[in-house]
Amino acid sequence: MNSQQWPPPGGGQDSPWAHQDPGHRAPQFHDAQGRDPRRPFGEAPPPPPPPEQLRPPRPTGPVVWAVVGIIVVIAALVLGMQFVGGGSQEPQPSGSAAPTSGASPSRTGNYIPFEGNGDGIFEIVRHEWTSEGLLIRVRVEIERGEYQFGLFAFTNETREAFDALNPAPFTVRAGTPYEADVVFPMPQADSTIVLSTPSGAVALNALPVPG
After folding, report:
1. According to DSSP H, which parts of the chain are helical?
2. Bias category Low complexity: which stretches (predicted)?
């Protein structure tokens, strides 16, 4: 059997291996990121960090100091204006206070304000139970005008009403308090004294008296 004849190495000038193919390009290899051995197979790699995190932080020192400087300048201007303007201001007289129905230093009894018939103060200066009944010292003062008033009493338990021995109405003028003794012929018990209009139809206010 004849053995096949192979061309000698190099093959001479007519061999296809004697010349390099002009279209041939050598393969290029790039480094690839290795797989994290702690990450399971098939899991997508983590996304790259956003560009904002890769940027270096902006210097804030000059901005902060500029803001602080502006605040200090404004505060200095405000204080300067107050100092300059304070010397030229004169104290303004305060307006007169509105009249009130508060207790006066001389008021020592049981008192209460009332509205209507000039608005004022109804006061029981003192009281005493006697053989005739209840003796009280009343004081009424009003803030304006001139008005007439009446008084009546009733016991708290029975609600029985009693007129004074002298049931005639009395007149009070603003600036001149009315003060007088009044007797109610009634049994001794916890009672209430009522200040009313002259007819007694409208009660202005009332004060308690212990029995």
Report:
1. 51-54, 61-86
2. 89-106
Say how many domains are in the chain: 1
**What is the distance between the alpha carbons of residues 23 and 19, in angstroms, rounded to a whole number?**
12
Q: Give the position of tokens 């916890």.
A: 190
Instruction: State the Cα–Cα distance between residues 98 and 170, nearest whole angstrom.
Output: 27
Q: 168 is written with which tokens?
A: 């005639």
- The pair of structure tokens assigned to 136 is 């009280």
Q: Is 175 part of a structural domain of the chain?
A: yes
Q: What is the DSSP letter of 169?
A: -
Gap between the Cα atoms of 139 and 193, Å rounded: 12
User: Do the domain assignments include residue 120?
Assistant: yes
**CA of residue 3 relative to chain centroid, distance:** 115
Q: Report the distance separating Cα 34 and Cα 31, nearest Å.
A: 9
Is 193 a member of any domain? yes
Domain of 118, CATH number, reads 2.60.40.1240
Q: How far apart are CA 106 and CA 152, in angstroms?
A: 25
* Amino acid identity at 96: S
Q: Where in the sequence is the domain holding 125, given as residue range(s)?
A: 110-209
CA–CA separation, 201 vs 199, rounded Å?
Answer: 5
Q: Chunk the chain into consecutive blocks of 10 residues (it has 211) and report each block's average pLDDT, rounded to whole numbers.
A: 54 56 61 61 65 56 58 61 49 38 59 96 96 96 97 96 92 96 97 95 95 92
Question: Is 149 contained in some domain?
Answer: yes
